[in-house]
């Protein structure tokens, strides 16, 4: 099964800056990341895995939808974007087998090329490309910190409207100074501690390994 070390090695090979954070307590699902990291849900991303049935041929396949922690993508939005007739949450054993991640802790990275991946447009549009977001790693004790721009480039996720239109006042845009580039990092998770250096690092300079 894929875990933090699998992701760390892949990012290291691609010279992608990232951070593996050790959580203060184990989590069962990615929806617990905000509590574990002490961060707003808007900075913690969850990959929902959905079982789909092709609208024309009836073939079955899995699709991923990246949304903020605690949120669920609109089934109709996913169905429309991937060309499916039916969309429903995938069974845990299917998620484990196809993604090679523990169900509930699926990272948006290193997913099968045959699995369409969507990302809610507001995750990208509401923040700077250099802002840092956190995702699960496939294991209960760690999280991955990565820049929005790097996440989008590495996953090739399709931006689309996965959530219902917001009502009322629009939440202020979050700007998180890229850790490690301008002195002390801003917005450090208050409860977690990094498993390596205390800032996002350039992968080739990394000497510590993820747990």
Write up this protein:
The protein has 211 residues and is an alpha+beta fold. The protein has helices spanning 4-13, 33-37, 75-82, 92-99, 121-125, 148-155; strands at residues 19-22, 45-54, 60-68, 84-89, 117-120, 132-136, 142-147, 158-160, 193-194. The strands form two sheets. Strands 4-2-3-5-8 form a five-stranded mixed sheet. The two termini are 14 Å apart. Residues 168-186 and 202-211 have low confidence and may be disordered.
**Percent of residues in beta strands?**
15-25%
Low-confidence spans: 168-186, 202-211
The level-1 CATH class: Alpha Beta
- Shape from CA axes? globular
Structural domains: how many: 1
Radius of gyration: 17 Å
Question: The CATH topology, please?
Answer: YbaK protein
Please count the beta strands (DSSP E, at least 2 residues each): 9
The helical percent reads 10-25%
Order of helices and strands: HEHEEHEHEHEEHEE
Structural class: alpha+beta
The number of helices is 6
End-to-end gap = 14 Å
The biggest sheet, with number of strands, parallel, antiparallel or mixed sense and barrel status, is: 5 strands, mixed
Mean pLDDT reading: 85
Task: Describe this structure in a few short sentences.
The chain is α+β, with helices and mostly antiparallel strands and about 210 residues long. It is about 20% helix and about 25% strand. The chain has one domain (about 5-165, about 175-195): YbaK/aminoacyl-tRNA synthetase-associated domain (YbaK protein).
């Amino acid at each position: 099964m894929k875990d933090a070390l699998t992701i760390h090695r892949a990012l290291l090979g691609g010279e992608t800056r990232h951070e593996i954070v050790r959580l203060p307590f184990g989590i069962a699902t990615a929806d617990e990341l905000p509590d574990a990291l002490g961060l707003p849900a808007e900075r913690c991303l969850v990959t929902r895995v959905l079982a789909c049935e092709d609208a024309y041929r009836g073939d079955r396949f899995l699709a991923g939808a990246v949304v903020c922690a605690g949120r669920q993508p609109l089934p109709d939005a996913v169905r429309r974007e991937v060309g499916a007739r039916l969309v429903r949450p995938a069974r845990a054993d299917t998620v484990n087998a196809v993604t090679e991640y523990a169900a509930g802790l699926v990272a948006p990275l290193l997913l099968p090329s045959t699995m369409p991946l969507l990302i809610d447009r507001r995750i990208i549009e509401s923040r700077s490309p250099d802002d840092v977001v956190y995702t699960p790693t496939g294991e209960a004790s760690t999280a991955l910190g990565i820049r929005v721009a790097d996440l989008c480039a590495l996953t090739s996720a399709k931006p689309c409207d996965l959530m219902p239109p917001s009502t009322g006042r629009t939440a202020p845009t979050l700007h998180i100074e890229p850790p490690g580039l301008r002195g002390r990092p801003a917005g450090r998770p208050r409860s977690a501690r990094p498993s390596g250096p205390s800032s996002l690092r350039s992968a080739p300079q990394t000497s510590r390994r993820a747990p």
